[in-house]
Amino acid sequence: MARLDVIMPQMGESIAEGTLSRWMKKVGDPVKRDEPIFEISTDKVDAEIPAPAAGVLVEIKVQEGQTVPVQTVVAVIDTEAGATVAAPIAAPVPAAPVRAAPPAPSPVAAPAPGPVSAAVLPPSPSAAPRAETVDDRLRSRSTPLVRRIAAENHVDFTAIPGSGVAGRVTKKDLLGYIEAGGAAASPQGTAAAPQRAPAPQTGPLVSIASGIEETPWAAVPWPGDRVEPMSKIRMLTAQHMVLSRRTSAHVTSFYEVDMTRVARLRDAHKKAFEERGAKLTYLGFITKAVADCLRRHPILNAAVRGSTVIYRQPINIGIAVALDWGLIVPVVRNADELSLFGVARTMRDLADRARAKRLKPDEVQQGTFTITNPGGFGSYVGAPIINQPQVAILGVGAVEKRPKVLTLDDGTDVIAPRLLMMLGLSYDHRVVDGADADRFMADLKRLLEEFPEGAL
After folding, report:
1. For residue 435, is it within any domain?
2. Is residue 310 included in any domain, yes or no?
3. Per-residue pLDDT tens for 388-442?
4. Distance between CA atoms of 326 and 52, rounded to whole angstroms?
5. Range with the poorest average pLDDT among 166-175, 259-268, 343-352, 422-431
6. Is residue 269 a contact partner of residue 280, using CB atoms and an 8 Å limit?
7. How many structural domains compose the chain?
């Protein structure tokens, strides 16, 4: 028997572990190369993992629900048995190679620390001051989620013994430290303050592990109730939403937009777009208009780091996609450089692959502005929560025919049916003033109501 180990893949440079959420094959089942055999969840994306070779699944080492470090062997395939497994008719697409990540490059000065590789190098034996090693970087930077939780709870996580790759501090390590009464970082950030008994709780509590408020009157199941654990993606969404509300000073502005012209352009061109592989939707027009407006209003395309503002150069627009198992936000990169057709085609591709769990981790990262479209379900207007570390998010209401007062060329006012839509912009008032938000929204409203046909 030729045994081939199947490993937990590294689904992004900053990801050190993954949760095996579902096996799609069982022991004894034949598998084809590139056929999905298990599903994983990370703090970035859910994905189906294909078999690296054809054969028979002879051993499962990691059970559903277990979280393990990357490069952990999760199963074994007998590849000699693969000769009897029927091959697909079409030529298979080569699977991604299974190997350890390469060593990370030397540190480069930047406004904010970026993700690092999970490669492991031996630490320098010298006790003298030295350059930062890969181990140092893994421990000090960890994942964005760990950094956010640590910052929110004022914890110096570099002092916590890590159980991850190269001693990296994982979310489990950090939460265990906090829930055990771990000390917060000192103002100098060099030593932890002495531990002390927690103060009595007088109001709602926030569960660090789930991100969900727990109160003294927390719900308990009654006879006949169904109790289900949250999925990993739902738990992460809960954490991010609670942390966002506690981080940013949320304010929301609402604008009504007349989409009648956009509707006419859409009716005239949607068939041609469909023939070229793109679906022309109202959201496509909105995304294109937002991208063009962000270039003229850079404060809405920014991020906050302490007492500094980072003005992002790329305009990467995240589009929230509602899935049966949660919410995910794939990113249209450099949206301002795309035509409306390019935006529409990219959005369709990302949405289709999100629903099929085929997104790559880098396709849900580095967004600079987010659009969410509850109007697709009939919502009139909403005040969405900012997607950290961004400073703004746009909520799109339903496009509906409603009466509107119009002024004719001779000054006469008439009431006429028009296709109207409400937009709600939630922004971080720490850095975005009301005037900034209103100038952006007025510009967006004008562009949508006068959408140039040449932009198609």
Report:
1. yes
2. yes
3. 999 999 999 999 999 999 999 999 999 999 999 999 999 999 999 999 999 999 9
4. 28
5. 166-175
6. yes
7. 2
Reply yes or no on whether the pLDDT at 97 is more than 50. no
DSSP-assigned states of every residue in 195-208 = P-PPPPP-S-EE-T
Burial track 307-344 (b if 16+ CB lie within 10 A, e otherwise): eeeeebeebbbbbbbeeeebbbbbbbbebbebebbbbb
Q: Residue 323: pLDDT band by 50, 70, 90 thresholds?
A: confident
Region for residue 363 given its phi and psi (left: phi exceeds 0; alpha: psi -120 to 50; beta: otherwise): alpha
What confidence tens digit (pLDDT) does each residue in 139-168 have? Answer: 455 665 677 677 767 777 677 777 765 566
Res. 200: pLDDT tops 70: no
What is each CA distance from 202 to 199, 211, 309, in whole angstroms? 9, 18, 35
Q: Is residue 129 included in any domain, yes or no? A: no
Q: Which domain holds residue 411?
A: 251-455
Active-site residue list:
429, 433
pLDDT (0 to 100) of residue 82:
55
Q: Is residue 143 part of a domain?
A: no
Question: Which residue would you say has higher pLDDT here, 425 or 230?
Answer: 425
- CATH number reported for the structural domain that contains residue 403 in this entry: 3.30.559.10
- What lies within 8 Å, CB to CB, of 318 at 6+ separation is 329, 330, 331, 332, 364, 367, 369, 370, 371, 387
Under 8 Å CB-to-CB from 117, ≥6 apart: which residues? 13, 101, 102, 103, 104, 134
Q: Which residue has the higher pLDDT, 183 or 81?
A: 81
Domain end (from 67, 84, 101): 84
In this structure, what token pair is assigned to residue 122?
């031996």
The CATH number linked to 60 is 2.40.50.100
Q: In what order do the strands lie in the sheet with 55-60?
A: 3-7, 73-78, 55-60, 30-31
Average pLDDT, the chain: 80
Strands 369-372, 392-396: pairing kind:
parallel
User: Last residue of some domain: 49, 84, 119?
Assistant: 84
User: In this structure, how many other beta carbons lie within 10 angstroms of the beta carbon of residue 175?
Assistant: 18
Q: Which long-range contacts (CB under 8 A, 24 or more apart) does 227-234 make?
A: 231/21, 231/41, 231/325, 231/326, 232/19, 232/21, 232/41, 232/46, 233/41, 233/46, 233/323, 233/325, 233/326, 233/327, 233/328, 234/325, 234/326
